[in-house]
Amino acid sequence: MRIKIVFFVFMLFLSTKQLIAYQELKITNEVKEHIKARISRGNSYGIVIGVVSASGTEFFSYGKKTVTGEEKVDEHTIFEIGSVTKVITTLLLADMIIKQEVKLSDPIEKYLPETVKIPERAGKKITFEHLATHTSGLPHIPTNFSFDSDNKYSETELYDFLSGYKLTRDIGSEFEYSGMGMGLIGHTLSLIANKNFEQLLIERICNSLGMNSTRIFLNSELKQRLSKAHSDKKETQYCYLPSVFDGAGSIRSTAVDLVNFLSANINIKNTVLKNAINLCHQPRKSTYGNEKIGLGWFISKRNGREIFYHAGNTFGFASFCGFMKKVKVGVVVLSNSHSSVSDIGFHLLTDGQFELDTIEK
């Protein structure tokens, strides 16, 4: 019996020690040197990391905003965050659910014009939950949309696609990542609120969480802080999505703002959005392997750790947001190159057990 008690106390000690270690999560020298090597070899031109835990926040920045300029990136530099937008869109949805403006089980056709025929299958309708968990059966991108269309894809074209699309499998039966599905959430919420997506973003999320540099359209002051975009070791175009897809990937933000966002998600920052945030964290569907998805957030079990995360890529930027809720730590990684930075985020969240990518020479 004594042996069992001693063993229990020892395991409790290890658990407590591990908890303390995570609460004091730091950006390691290994990661800093790795980032410097990435930038010196042209894999990116500027990278910013933000770490938040119960013991405070830390930022590390390295590199420049442009290929030829000298202005350095920092935690206030604005980056396109791509698909990290999606977990902000689902938080907007959750906020409207908590306020009883919509239900997660509502068919989206309820809020669209009567002339729009949303695809059905086996008598089942696409709901907000299907869209937020990528189980609607809708494709990633509509077949009548092209990124070369000069941002002129209209509401009418979206409705035409939806009205003519035939689902290839039962609704809710299978996970398939759908950018247009998340865009459709944002578009539908805008119709319900009679406000454009950015107005909803500012009023319901940014103002509540102190995300004052998080926008879709930048004023003159914010434009001064926007980094250039890079791909294949040269500057490239910014990503401008049609407004009907704003909820999928149009947001621009900073490491400071996204650390504020993660602080609310790990319950360090007190906010009126707390119940909506918790709603987003509930696992709902399986994705790949042992991963699940909540409302927008992917939930991964790595070495016994439950990690909530989402990554984003545009033509010339990459982003990662991830956190461990139980031990209250979060990581933001932003880069002004399209090359993924998810390995850096996972490396920090797993205490180095997730290996950093090999750097291209």
The CATH topology label is Beta-lactamase
**How would you spell out the order of helices and strands?**
HHEEEHHHHHHEEHEHHEEEEEEH
Major sheet details: 8 strands, antiparallel
CATH class value:
Alpha Beta
- Total beta strands: 12
Query: Termini separation (Å)?
Result: 58 Å
Known CATH architecture: 3-Layer(aba) Sandwich
Tally of separate domains? 1
Helix content: 25-40%
What do the pLDDT scores average to? Answer: 91
Assign an overall shape.
globular
Class from helix and strand fractions: alpha+beta
Number of helices: 12
Report the uncertain regions.
1-22
Strand content: 15-25%
If you compute it from the alpha carbons, what radius of gyration comes out, rounded to the nearest whole angstrom?
21 Å
**Strand order within the widest sheet?**
2-1-12-11-10-9-8-7
Output the CATH homologous superfamily: DD-peptidase/beta-lactamase superfamily
Topology of this protein?
Blueprint: H1 2-23, H2 29-40, E1 46-53, E2 56-63, E3 79-80, H3 85-98, H4 128-132, H5 155-164, H6 179-193, H7 197-209, H8 220-224, E4 229-231, E5 234-236, H9 246-249, E6 252-253, H10 255-265, H11 274-281, E7 285-286, E8 292-293, E9 298-302, E10 305-313, E11 318-324, E12 329-335, H12 342-349
Antiparallel strand pairs: 1-2, 1-12, 3-6, 4-5, 7-8, 8-9, 9-10, 10-11, 11-12
